[in-house]
Amino acid sequence: MIKDKEELDFLIQQGEGYNLEFKESYNPSVAREICAMANATGGKILIGVTDDGKVKPVELNNKIRSEIQDLVRNFDPDFAVDVCELSGVIVIDVPEGKKKPYSTSGKFYMRQGANSQQLSRDEIKNLFISERLIHFDEAPSQNFSFGSDFNEDAYGSFLSKIGVTTKLSREDILKNLELLSGGTIKNAGALLFCKKATNISRNATIVCALFMGKTKTKVIDTKEFDADLLSNYTGAFDYLRSKLNTEYIMTGGPREEVLELPEKALREALLNAVAHRDYFSNANIQISIFTDRVVIDNPGGLVGKMKVEDLYKKSYPRNNLLFGLMQRMELVEKIGSGLMRINEMMDEYLLPHPVIEATDVYFGISFERPDLQKMSVEQRMKKYKEVGERVGERVGERVGDNLTDNQRKIIDLIDKNRYTSIVDLAKEVGIAEKNIENNLAKLKEKGIIRRIGPDKGGYWEVIK
Questions:
Q1: Which residues are 90's β-sheet partners?
Q2: How far is CA 229 from CA 190, 209, 244, 322, in A?
Q3: Which among 55, 132, 147, 316 is least surrounded, fewest beta carbons within 10 Å?
Q4: Rg (CA), the chain
Q5: DSSP assignment of 181-203, as one string?
Q6: Rounded CA gap, 363 and 273, in Å?
Q7: pLDDT tens, 35-46?
Q8: Counting beta carbons within 10 angstroms of the beta carbon of residue 39, is it exposed (0 to 12), middle (13 to 18) or buried (19 or more)?
Q9: What pLDDT sits at residue 330?
């Protein structure tokens, strides 16, 4: 339970995430959030805090307190939470459930990123079975020592990236991030704040290799990255970038250096590998650079009974706690939309969508390298623009750089289906319905979209 206002301020600063939910006011629908957190690793729900972190004071009266306790007692199986009020904010402290899976009103919910998604009982049962109930990232790290393994630089970088300043002790911060199990750090925290990844998990490294030709017959160079999670990612990506061709493009100002493959697409693929790999596996993440392609392989097949085509619709992160922390660092963004973004970026380069191969034990994504002798990157981009850019990009040019990736996707979806609903937009974009509503309001303020007719029965229109 939160001890004082300093802890409360810390939670509000870090924003919503896997273990933290904001509610502006109390509503019995909070039961689904409690249920989802109980089925995950626990967390906290702050009632009286807006989506953008502003406190709108609420009072915890006996009626609300009693209703919250009644809600969880009616879970199947029954459950219990701690409820208190601090500085006008109702805090619901949700422990990790010991009798998973839990349901409320006959429905099962699971935390996915910063959202709570409803699952069927079979889906949630298969998820727990296939993932051994306890995920690697949520288990206590048996090999980690705060004295010899804790990386102060990685810890400081993490706090900086999540935009938090606080006087709380390291122990209190880790506890509020749900990274402590008793006095032991969980594997997610150990991977982020270690000095050497192999001290946490034998193969929690990234291996890069440059090959001569199109096969692995002749190796030109290799390098293994074995530090904290963020350093491994940045080091491996810098290695990959250094081995690819670059081109200088004049844009009217300083010349811009552009990779032969979309840099953001490669980053997305590598981050997905780091976030979703199976850390129980004896294999590591591998980046293979051939003359005709770049391949990123990570251990761990698709979770449950998912198929590759399902990745464009929804996602069950293998490492929910780790994924949530990476979201806070703004390394990963949306659930179940990474492949769509990668495909869109490859379209801009007039390159085929990457080839995906998934088995029971590994997931691989292969990017075809372009023949720059036939057509340069600049020529590809110009040709793509001549064919016609997506609606979101056209609008983006008109309003400058004020549109987020989420807003561009919303515009694109509305242009394709003007009758699309907030529920459908939330599923396609991969963010909560309340965040869709906020983005729609901002787009209307900018004069980019407008609503024709009533909320029910009307439709959206992109103003071109």
A1: 47, 85
A2: 9, 19, 23, 10
A3: 147
A4: 23
A5: ETTEEBHHHHHHHBS-GGGTSTT
A6: 8
A7: 999 988 899 999
A8: buried
A9: 84
